[in-house]
Amino acid sequence: MADATPYTLIDGRKISSDIKKEITDKVLERRQLNKKVPHLAIILVGDDGASQTYVDHKVKACKEVGFHYTMMRFADTISEDKLMKHIDQVNRDEDVDGFIVQLPLPQHISVERITEKIRPDKDVDGFTNRNFGSIVSKNPLLLPATPYGVMELLKRYNIETEGKNCVVVGASRLVGAPLSMMLVEEGRATVTVCHKYTKDLASFTRQADILVVAVGKPGIVTADMVKQGAVVIDVGTTRVEGAQYKNGYALKGDVEFNSVAPKASFITPVPGGVGPMTIASLLLNTLRAAELRNP
């Protein structure tokens, strides 16, 4: 393509590593000053392989930065009421600063009820209604982890958001909705949110200075949907099965990377872009929770 611009690959693994080093230094400083070391509690229900992998990554990250951590595992037959009682115990445990319940949960357990049971000042996933709503305040409590990670990537790559036209494809409570609010409040951007009911999606995405895609549909955004020089943030990560892949599967993003990248100024890969930032953000939130509770 003659008018293609050299793009910068946004390296989420590197930024995540940088953040972990910064947190490690702060934990060491807290130890030297005899201040409380951050403590993360994790509840895992059932034996879902992907969930176990995510939890293992979180435990490993805690070890890397010097956090204390507690793992609580329960069978997928646990009742909602019994799980609630365990959550109450962790809420009351003043040694625990951050607390997550790994999703998804078994169908007989209400994700909303469980999420709202977690104390907002310990909710380091940033899922509770209070934390969601605090995005529009001048002093947010604990930000939703994945959107927080996207904002950190933009900030650390010095990507200007103020006054820019940002299009967020996907309006989920976990990513699209909170991220759009953060781009308005913190980023001072002009934001358009698209979703599955949007007609002629390409007419919106072509206007984006910064395009964020978070719908979980591999390759939904193609080169003809992106304007030259756009910043492209691909949040989608879908496991696609196929005999042509070395391990029998591959992780695919929502953006058709090979065709879109030459048109972009900055672009995230999948994997290795936004994914590593979610755990980094979880660690940042846990540190903040500890600092708020024990300055």
Offer a concise description of the structure.
Helices cover 38% and strands 17% of the residues. The chain has helices at 12-32, 49-65, 80-92, 111-117, 129-133, 145-156, 176-185, 201-205, 257-260, 275-293; strands spanning 8-9, 39-45, 68-74, 98-101, 165-169, 190-194, 210-213, 230-234, 238-241, 249-252, 264-267.
Notes on the structure:
With 295 residues, the chain is α/β, with parallel strands linked by helices. The protein has two domains: 86 residues, Leucine Dehydrogenase, chain A, domain 1 (Rossmann fold); 132 residues, 3-Layer(aba) Sandwich (Rossmann fold), CATH 3.40.50. The chain is 38% helix and 17% strand. The protein is built from ten helices and eleven strands. The protein has a six-stranded parallel β-sheet. A three-stranded parallel β-sheet has the order 3-2-4. The chain has a two-stranded antiparallel ribbon with strand order 9-10. Helix 1 runs parallel beside helix 10, helix 6 crosses helix 7 and helix 6 packs across helix 10. The radius of gyration is 20 Å and the shape is globular. The N and C termini lie far apart (54 Å). The model has no long low-confidence stretch (mean pLDDT 94).
In terms of topology, how is this protein built?
Blueprint: E1 8-9, H1 12-32, E2 39-45, H2 49-65, E3 68-74, H3 80-92, E4 98-101, H4 111-117, H5 129-133, H6 145-156, E5 165-169, H7 176-185, E6 190-194, H8 201-205, E7 210-213, E8 230-234, E9 238-241, E10 249-252, H9 257-260, E11 264-267, H10 275-293
Parallel strand pairs: 1-11, 2-3, 2-4, 5-6, 5-7, 7-8, 8-11
Antiparallel strand pairs: 9-10
